[in-house]
Amino acid sequence: MSKPKIVPVLPQTDEPNPTKIPNERMTTPAGLQVAPVFDAFVKSDLPSSVTPVAFYSCLEDLVNTIEPKIQDALKTRSALQAQIDEFHRKTGPIEPSKYITFLQSINYLVPVPESVTISTSGVDEEIATIPGPQLVVPVNNARFALNAANARWGSLYSCLYGTDVFGPPVKGPYDASRGEKVTCWVRKWLDDVLPLDEGSHAEVTSYECEGGEMRPKMKEGKFLGTREVNGAKHFLLENNGLKIEIVIDKTTEVGKADTAGVSDVLLESAISTILDFEDSVAAVDAEDKVEAYKNWRGLMVGDLEARFSKGGKEVVRTLNANKTFLGPQNEPFEVRSRSLLLVRNVGHLMTTPTVLDKEGREIGEGLLDAITSVALAKFDLEKDSKLNKNSPENSIYIVKPKMHGPEEVKIACDTFDIIERHLNLPPNTVKLGIMDEERRTSANLNACIAAASSRVAFVNTGFLDRTGDEIHTSMEAGPFVRKKNMKAQPWIAAYENRNVDIGLACGFTGKAQIGKGMWAMPDLLGKMLEEKIGHPQAGANCAWVPSPTAATLHATHYHRVDALKRQGEIATGGSRSTLEQLLTVPIIEDPSAWTAEDKRDEIENSAQGILGYAVRWVDQGIGCSKVPDINNVGLMEDRATCRISSQLLANWLHHKVVTEEEVIAAMKKMAEVVDKQNANDQNYTPLAPSFDGIAWRAACDLALKGRTQPSGYTEPILHLARLEKKKEQRAESK
Ligand SMILES: CC(=O)SCCNC(=O)CCNC(=O)[C@H](O)C(C)(C)COP(=O)(O)OP(=O)(O)OC[C@H]1O[C@@H](n2cnc3c(N)ncnc32)[C@H](O)[C@@H]1OP(=O)(O)O
Ligand SMILES: O=CC(=O)O
Ligand SMILES: [Mg+2]
Questions:
Q1: What positions does the domain Malate synthase C-terminal occupy (predicted)?
Q2: Structural domains of the chain, ranges and CATH numbers in brackets
Q3: Using omega within 30 degrees of 0 as the cis cutoff, is the peptide bond preceding 96 cis?
Q4: Tell me, what's the pLDDT at 297?
Q5: Mean of pLDDT values over 57-72
Q6: Is residue 627 lining ligand 1, measured as CB closer than 6 Å?
Q7: Is any atom of ligand 2 closer than 6 Å to the C-beta of 517?
Q8: What is the distance in A from the centroid of ligand 1 to the CA of 366?
């Protein structure tokens, strides 16, 4: 069989890097060269307390002070990787104690600090003391971003009825028997989480408020107040810090059929939400970055609006206002209707063509994200009334992904020190979310937390990137287990437990979040309802969900499990895993045990994920997609899931488990499947039969060149391909 020809997307030596094609640029007083669209944004869209001069002088300081540190850190990553590769190539089967000694000798493992206690202050209750779901949303999609901000509350009835909890989702007129399953489930759940002094919620014929008390009676402190909305009476209750509204409305079909007239039960759902600039977003140039920054601005100002048509109706979506209730003595009080918003910046690796330094080099994208996110969050801090603020405690929450070890955490903190100084913010206004998603961070988590001890507001386990880095770091050690077996490997249990144990030992309870990862099967919410209770049970006070609906269903778990109490129980038990377990590389001894079918399944599965994701990323600029897998289950695919597929294929190719020809054959076969899956999308350009589009070539690069990508990331290939595509689209539209 002749070797298939793949035309790489990565530029060849004499081909200009499309990001470096000279553009007309503005030169700032600080000597930075700025894309006009971004300069216009800086001049017209920042709060008046951040003048363009102040903004650019801060950016210049970051470029001069932090950029060299980032470059050094990236060199350290490469140097460590080279030494680890060499170790595996020379050493053969891994002996744990020798391996750990080696990792210490190269400073991959740093000394564990004696005792670390975080001192973060000014943290909002949504982070510190209200355990609950954390929603993530691509920031550049205003419609979704508004939906996410408003996802603080959700209808439990709708979420149970409309998803697969009681069988495949149904369309059409109200199905009363399905509705009854929903109401029975909810009554039973209410009995579990808000038991009545006597009897069951299922027997209640009427909910009343008499003389400041709720009837039927429940435990003291659970009933908070009432409100009336268009004739419907809402009872506000609380459990484990989370609010619940029981809605009585006998004018609705559901309320009419219910003995107590209950038409819905509303739950506080997405307690916090991460507006994502990173792995769920495709933002490759100044236009893309400005579009995303504008959405963050709209959320911080409070005036973001999205107009779209849905079900034949024109919708104008804006941010919800707080809800007003009357307490037991008829005193009015407000309840927050919006999720507490955090923002995830990009990591340390990528640069952006939006701003060039004096020498014409792209500056760190993370630096631009950091200063712009903070500058725009000043709109929120400067609001008069606490009630309208995202952060009544005057904090800004920035999640920093993909950091490798404590030096890189320190770089993030140094960045925020500089920004706070320039923008006249009190020190430590910016609270840092440390994603524990690279192996060197997991292995040195104490030291990472110590490096941010006055700012850290969360650590969380992100299984997806972490798996990609697991494969990349130990690429030379041998062939990795199949993707579907990864979750059962010893390193994962150690990783999840250690993250919680270390967070607890560092005093996170009541001050910061210990989070768990994404539910990546957005349509399998029945399964999520069964399984994701495992997250609060494991001591997490938040865990990621992909949609508002998932947030409402996951909220039910935090009513059943008191996560803060659970943290106390876990903390008294001490550490549950060892470094040795964490560093157990999930390779298999004998790949010949895999049948030809096993191998085909694995490469087709990865090929489908890569293609289904990359084609929308490159051709349409969509950074997060639901892509059906080979069993037709829609999976959330983002850059991190793509990194796993890319690394797995790279690893199997490197260890000759499969050949390049087999991978390309699988890619071609799956391209046809992906084309069929997207047949109804008017904006879709098929991959087959030409197999020569930019998206196709990018997908092949992701499959074949994963071993040489920095840390095995997908963004360098995706960014270049998208820039090429945009150039092609611009040329076509002329
Ligand atoms: C490893 C990591 O980094 S994980 C973090 C990154 N991942 C994410 O952020 C995932 C975020 N989720 C998503 O982007 C989407 O849910 C997807 C891509 C997975 C699925 O999207 P779709 O196929 O369009 O979803 P679907 O058709 O089921 O639902 C769309 C509806 O749900 C809403 N929705 C879906 N996801 C979200 C979300 N994350 N936030 C807010 N609203 C959402 C949409 O607004 C839309 O409702 P509308 O019509 O009223 O506006
Ligand atoms: O960012 C989350 C992850 O799992 O990766
Ligand atoms: Mg990640």
A1: 599-693
A2: 1-30+590-734 (1.20.1220.12)
A3: no
A4: 98
A5: 98
A6: no
A7: yes
A8: 24
Report the mean per-residue pLDDT for the chain: 95
Task: Check if the beta carbon of residue 420 is closer than 8 Å to that of residue 438.
Answer: no
Asked if residues 175 and 166 have their Cβ atoms less than 8 Å apart, the reply is no
Rounded CA-CA distance 109/112 in Å is: 9
Q: Is the CB of 637 under 6 A from ligand 2?
A: no
Q: Is the CB of 518 under 6 A from ligand 1?
A: yes
- Rounded to two decimals, what is the model's pTM? 0.96
Residue 211 has pLDDT above 90, yes or no: no
Closest by Cα among 714, 721, 704, 724 to 280: 714
50: left (phi over 0), alpha (psi -120 to 50) or beta: beta
Q: Which atom of ligand 2 is nearest to the CA of 437?
A: 5
Ligand 1 centroid to residue 547 C-alpha, Å: 5
Pocket flag, ligand 2, residue 464 (CB < 6 Å): yes
Q: How do residues 131-160 score in pLDDT, each as one tens digit? A: 999 999 999 999 999 999 999 999 999 999
| Mean pLDDT within 395-401 | 98
Contact 127, 509 (CB under 8 A): no
Please, are residues 436 and 442 in contact by the beta-carbon 8 Å criterion?
A: yes
Can you tell me which atom of ligand 1 is nearest the CA of 462? 1
Helix or strand run (H / E) with residue 16: none
What is the CA angle 214-126-551, rounded to 5? 80
- Are 610 and 642 contacting, i.e. CB atoms less than 8 angstroms apart? yes
For residue 546, give the ligand nearest its CA: 1
ipTM: 0.99
Closest residue CA from atom 5 of ligand 2: 465
Structure tokens at 20: 């470096």
638 catalytically annotated: yes
Distances (CA, A) of 120 to 318, 413, 424: 33, 13, 19
Report the alpha-carbon distance of residue 708 to residue 81 in Å, rounded: 11
344 given a catalytic annotation: yes
Distance CA 448, CA 110 (A): 10
pLDDT band at 23 (very low <50, low <70, confident <90, very high): low
* Alpha carbons 483 and 157: distance in angstroms, whole number: 35
3-state helix, strand, coil in the chain (%, to 5): 50, 15, 35
Please report, to the nearest 10 degrees, the dihedral formed by the alpha carbons of residues 181, 185, 186, 192 taken in order.
Answer: 170
Which ligand is the nearest neighbour of the Cα of 279? 1
Q: Which atom of ligand 2 is nearest to the CA of 463?
A: 4
**CA-274 nearest atom, ligand 1:** 9
The reported pLDDT for the residue numbered 678 is 96
The structure tokens listed for 483 are 């993707």
Instruction: Give the DSSP letter of residue 397.
Output: E
Set 187, 336, 344, 639: catalytic member: 344
4-22 pLDDT per residue, tens = 444 445 443 333 344 444 4
3-state class of 379 per DSSP? Answer: helix
Reduced to 3 states (helix: H, G, I; strand: E, B; else coil), residue 400 is strand
Q: HEC string of 385-399?
A: CHHHCCCCCCCEEEE
Q: Is 518 in the pocket of ligand 2 (CB under 6 A)?
A: yes
Of 144, 133, 138, 235, the closest CA to residue 194 belongs to 235
Closest listed residue to residue 464, CA positions, set 432, 434, 497, 492? 492
Does the beta carbon of 279 lie inside 6 Å of ligand 1?
Answer: yes
pLDDT in tens, 601-654: 999 999 999 999 999 999 999 999 999 998 889 999 999 999 999 999 999 999
Largest CA distance in the chain: 85
Minimum CA distance residue for ligand 1 atom 49: 310
Determine the distance separating the centroid of ligand 2 and the alpha carbon of 439, expressed in angstroms.
13
The pair of structure tokens assigned to 667 is: 């890619």
Helix (H, G, I), strand (E, B) or coil at 731: helix
